[in-house]
Amino acid sequence: MTEIANAPPLLAARSLSFSRDDRPVFEALDFEVGAGEALLVRGGNGAGKTTLLRVLAGLLEADGGTVAVAGTPVARAMRAGTMAYLGHLPGLKADLDAVENLEFLARLQGCRESQDVARALALVGLAAHAHLPVRQMSAGQKKRLSLARLWMSPARLWLLDEPYANLDLQGIELVNRMVRAQLDDGGAALVTTHGAYAAPPVRTRELALATVA
Ligand SMILES: Nc1ncnc2c1ncn2[C@@H]1O[C@H](COP(=O)(O)OP(=O)(O)OP(=O)(O)O)[C@@H](O)[C@H]1O
Known about the structure:
Layout: H1 2-6, E1 11-20, E2 23-33, E3 38-42, H2 49-56, E4 64-69, E5 72-73, E6 83-86, H3 98-109, H4 117-123, H5 139-152, E7 157-160, H6 169-184, E8 188-193, E9 204-208
Bound molecules: adenosine-5'-triphosphate (ATP).
């Protein structure tokens, strides 16, 4: 118990800043999220939520500040190996089917213990579409396939950008169940939202980003 209480946060950002064309999108952000916690990143359209997650994931370079994972600062190029990022663009191969995509991604990112493609597809409700090419999938089916990919990732830290977008009610509940299971398992999740949906029922911190006029 003491050991867990003294453990460094799973993710800590210090003085994190990012600008575009010399205009700050966010400046000197300080926040952290511990094992078993979710951080809800709130803000209106254009507030910088996607930009923040892309900076954290190492897809964009910060102007300044540090990102530490489990107490160790991690350089931008190394961050993809420590986090699983669910973005707006699913990053799936359109010509491959669901199984082929997940097998390819498992080879690339590794796979969480005791998981496999068939189980992940069943979890997200795509078992009947295992051999459907991604280009023939609906937006919600693609999102579900991205969720299967997330579920298979061995990363403890999840960065979820508008995870509810394109999902029906069962899909929204699925995301919340997945987040809860990940946190129960000692992981953490950052979740962006416009605030339109209820936060998953887990221990949650909030980070509000202001829209720069
Ligand atoms: N590729 C880009 N090139 C230039 N400016 C960009 C780019 N992507 C985003 N921006 C700008 O950066 C700011 C933050 O955008 P971002 O997408 O991070 O906001 P957001 O909070 O995720 O918005 P939304 O809720 O609408 O998805 C906005 O002013 C946006 O116009």
